[in-house]
Automatic annotation (TrEMBL):
Its main location: cytoplasm. It comes from Brassica oleracea var. oleracea. Keywords: Cytoplasm, Heme, Iron, Metal-binding, Nucleus, Oxidoreductase. GO terms for molecular function: heme binding; metal ion binding; oxidoreductase activity; oxygen binding. It comes from the Eukaryota. The keyword Phosphoprotein does not apply. This is Globin domain-containing protein. GO terms for cellular component: cytoplasm; nucleus.
Length: 154
């Protein structure tokens, strides 16, 4: 499967739009995860002592932004090299964080769906299946790399 220049551009352009309102979209992203999989709440340390999703939580925002940025980087790498080369140490670190948090393979589909819903919300009429396809493809590659790290560790 090839990742085209057009797909890379779509991913970059849509991130440029979403990043104009980080507080809004990081919250939306996270809320979607919990709407799809309410039980996931207990895995997140920044939620353990609260009943609702905290607005303007710095950790939540920072992590949500990283998911978007890393998916963008993956898109760029896929276009340039045809493979995922997010720094090895980053992947190892994320592998161990997710393993320790109790994340399982099916959760990755939940986060993908939440990401897609957030794009839909943020892009409005600029959203289409091509955009969704480009993000999904990049996300799947990144998720596969993290899952592989999680399996190496246990
Ligand atoms: C933490 C990215 C998938 C749950 C994090 C962090 C990043 C990240 C950057 C912060 C690490 C740190 O600095 O401490 C990603 C990416 C994913 C992904 C890029 C997919 C491509 C998932 C999935 C779940 C999940 C599928 C399960 C619903 C968590 C949890 C933490 C975490 C529970 C720890 C948060 C905390 O307690 O501080 N993730 N993640 N992640 N992620 Fe993910
Ligand atoms: C961590 N991992 C995946 C998705 C996330 C979304 C919001 C906050 C933290 C996250």
């Amino acid at each position: 499967i090839v990742f085209t220049e057009k797909q890379e551009a779509l991913v970059k352009e849509s991130w440029e739009i979403l990043k104009q309102d980080i507080p809004k979209y990081s919250l939306h992203f996270f809320s979607q995860i919990l709407e799809i999989a309410p039980a996931a709440k207990d895995m997140f340390s920044f939620l353990r002592d609260t009943d609702e999703v905290p607005h303007n939580n710095p950790k939540l925002k920072a992590h949500a932004v990283k998911v978007f940025k890393m998916t963008c980087e993956t898109a760029i790498q896929l276009r340039e090299k045809g493979t995922v080369v997010v720094a090895d140490t980053t992947l190892q670190y994320l592998g161990s964080v997710h393993l320790k948090s109790g994340v399982l393979d099916p959760h990755f589909e939940v986060v993908k769906e939440a990401l897609v819903r957030t794009l839909k919300e943020g892009l409005g009429e600029k959203y289409n299946e091509e955009v969704e396809g480009a993000w999904s493809q990049a996300y799947d590659h990144l998720a596969l790399a993290i899952k592989a790290e999680m399996k190496q560790e246990d």
